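Progress report, Aim 2. The chain analyzed during this reporting quarter is listed below.
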Amino acid sequence: MASTLLIYRVARPHLPASLALLSAAVFAMTPITVLLARYNNPDPLMVLLMLSALYAGIRAVETDRSRLLYLGACFLALGFLTKQLQAFLVLPAIVLVFLVYSSFAWPKRLVTLLFACVMLVAGSLAWPMVVELTPPMSRPYVGGSATNSMLELTLGYNGLDRVLKREADPSTALIPEAMRRLDTDAGFFRLFNANYGQEIGWLLVPALIASIAITVQLVSGRFSRKKSILATAAVSWLATTYIVLSFMGNSFHSYYTASLAAPLALCIGLGAELAFTSGRTVLSRVGLGLTVVASSIFSHAMWQLSDAYLEWLGNALLYAGLLSGAVLLLPAPQKWISVAASWLAIGSLLVGPLYCSVITLSSPQNGSNPLSGGVARNPHTLSRFLQGVRVQDPAWASGLAIGNSPSPAIAELLRSADADCTWAAATYPGQTAARFQLEVGRPIMPIGGFAATDPSPKLEQFQQAALTGRLCYLVEQPEQLMVPGNSSELAAIHDWVRNTFRAENIDGVTVYRLAL
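Predicted structure tokens for the chain:
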């Protein structure tokens, strides 16, 4: 809600109230925005902080107040602490706007920007450095890193690996290689495909075309200085995010598209204003009409992704879009006709994301990869894969993506575990340990972290916890043990437990009593 209001506040000084509200509505109705707003995920907070940083940066340039740029750096540092490097997707837009439009002399401009960068780096690294300077035995293990390092996590797993890594990685992309038709789906049209189109693809075509039209207006100098600031920020933010998401590696979750919703909404608002003020020349009419036609066709393609969408409604909206595009191609005898056709086009395009968001609101979500909309028709898609995961097919992926719950007998056993045990049991991976803990109401030790790949706890730590009576049980997850890439510490722990303690079979699950 705060981000939606901020979209309006950013757009309103430069757009009519109706189009500023349109930008806010586009953001609020984007399916990935709706999904994450009701899910336990840090991305909505990151988006709010990115928008706050952009707003502060724009106001700093408009008012020539350096302290607003410094405030923007603080917001962006908090965004980094929320979701790490993904928050910096808006940084090029802020820097570009300040360098191009600031009224400061160049020496002061560069010094101000340098100081803001120092604040950004200092704020971003404050917590990671606290972690690094804390002795490893006095803090939790940094999940996702091989060396228990926050800086390694930032630059590796959450940094360059996300952008450059191409091999299929079930622990992050969740789709095994057997279900991939290509080694990677990275490319210019990635965000339109059946994995991500329902999240963000509905209005991408008009947003991208609008960004081109806005750039033409900027280059030709047809915008005022203040509108140029907003337009440059919106287009550069959209371009940066679109390129990174389209061409980054396979460690790509569909909800990363949330970072594209805000610049998309701003470009739609600016583009809509151009649509209402164009039509005076043959070239502008042809461009506008073809844009509406292309946008309607791509929107209709989104309607074909899932059986959850009403075919007749998708077809009706396509015809409405094509009709409005045809009207806009021709010189209107009266202005109200072209205005009505423009609003008809906008309305027909908005129905898709709104309908998808309604489906999203009615669909319970759990696990590490929530999805908008309906299950895709294409069998080689993430939604189809996760549909199988929810029914334990394949079982290893269910434990990784959603987590396995304990059977009633195991849950009762763990509830009645010795009260002196710090951990009622240990199991893996992290999602399964979490579901066990929620079910039994007792602490559960996750071996190997989120994906059972972290070298934590060490064998010696596990042995000490078991032999001193602080850990009662180990619950085996045989399907997870067959997944390549498990931590060597997990294998060592299992070997020690099997050779030291007696196994019990409870509801078909192997359980070891560790407390002596």
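Residues 12 and 20 are 5 Å apart (CA to CA). Residues 397-513 form one domain. These observations will guide the mutagenesis work planned for the next reporting period.
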